[in-house]
Amino acid sequence: MGTNRTAVIDVGGGYRSIFGAGVFDRCMEEGINFDHCYGVSAGSANLASFLAGQLRRCYKFYTVYSSRREYAGAGNFVKDGSFVNLDYVYGTLSAHDGENPLDYQALMKNPAGFTVVACNALDGSATYFDKSDLAQDNYDILKASSSVPVANKAYMIDEIPYLDGGIADPVPVRKALDEGYDRIVLVLTRQRDILREQKKDVLPARILARTYPAAAERLMERYKTYNDEVALAKEAEKKGKVLILAPDSLCGLTTLSKSLKGLNEMYDKGYRSAEAIKDFLVG
Fold it and tell me: Among residues 182, 180, 151, which one has the least CA distance to residue 164?
């Protein structure tokens, strides 16, 4: 889009992330592309389908597959310690012979860069994976980025446990700016002017501290990291470098709870908000 170096960031947010699915379906319909895509947690799944050019693929995951007991539920947690069965999502459904395969070849042929954020559970640091860490039917980095603490057990890659990228770098605006992108679309799944609070992270952090104390410390500070990054994005927005897309309500959705009505409302909000992207990127 013009001479600007462009990037998009999808911060994820469990079922609220269907907002981003709406954004990227609109982008695909209008032929909008980016030089680089940064995905956190479920945002990385949205971007994988976007980079593969698979229109409305993610919509089906949120509205159809997520209601299956194999996908998510207390039974999964009792069975193997994870509420969301990431192997079902990224294996059974997404493999080349799965029910709704991710078009891996198209994703890899797309010239855009792809950064997937995860949290190293051992030291609490942010790990930034890229396309070189993907392989056909091996989407471990997407699983790692989406391993919500306590609700899911840490995901192992090369003997290192990883947790949800939102713990370590929930809104990687600084990284995108530091890497030289001068038009950045930021997809939030909370209202833009509501600060994140620490209280919802206190109990999960206490539980997490039993096994991964460094990651628990980062989780306790996530609210501040998130709020600081959104504030940075707002400052950059005033300079014309960032466009923030965010829902005006959460439609009754949370990270791990949903209704079909709420999902459809949130998807529509994302789809409509994407109208502003084209003019922003060329402006």
Answer: 151
